[in-house]
Fold:
Amino acid sequence: MVHVSIIGGKLVLHLIKKHTRGTAMQGVKVARPNDFRRMNSSKRTVSRAYGGVLTGTEVKERIMRAFLIEEFKRFKNISKSTSDKKDKKKKKGGAKKAAKK
Structure:
């Protein structure tokens, strides 16, 4: 983009670089893709899991979701095993009563 201005009686053309929205992540510089290539890797990313791709809250939600899924699986297995034990006790008790009569 070109911007024209008059500075000190001279007509001057200024080249204006394109803007970018950025990644909206703390710690990551806002720059165009070509400028990113020239930056240090420490300015391009954040030092955490999925740094520079996911925000801190997104990473936290991802970890929580994985943890809760594992807990739910464990809970299902425990409840299933306790219900199986109850069913076995009921079957044994019913067979004894029928044998006595």
User: Anything to note?
Assistant: The first strand starts at residue 2 and ends at 7. Helices lie at 33-38, 41-44, 56-100. The first helix runs from residue 33 to 38.
